[in-house]
Amino acid sequence: MSRKQQLLKRHRRNKRLALLGGLLLLIAVGVLVAWWLAPLLA
């Protein structure tokens, strides 16, 4: 396997991790906002 392929593979894995992290962050923010807004709207 060439060095370029290795770098590409690593980059792809990092991209997937970044997407997963972003998704988790969005979920966390959504939960926090919902939890914060619930008493105000209720």
Can you lay out the helices and strands and say which pair or pack?
Blueprint: H1 3-41
Keywords: Membrane, Transmembrane, Transmembrane helix
Transmembrane segments: 20-38
Written account of the structure:
The protein has one domain. Helix content is 93%, strand content 0%.
Summarize the biggest pleated sheet.
none
Helix content: over 70%
Stretches where pLDDT is under 50 for at least 5 consecutive residues are none
Mean pLDDT: 92
Computed over alpha carbons, the radius of gyration is 18 Å
In short:
By secondary structure, the chain is mainly α. The chain has one helix and no strands.
Name its key features.
membrane; mainly alpha; transmembrane helix; 42 residues; transmembrane
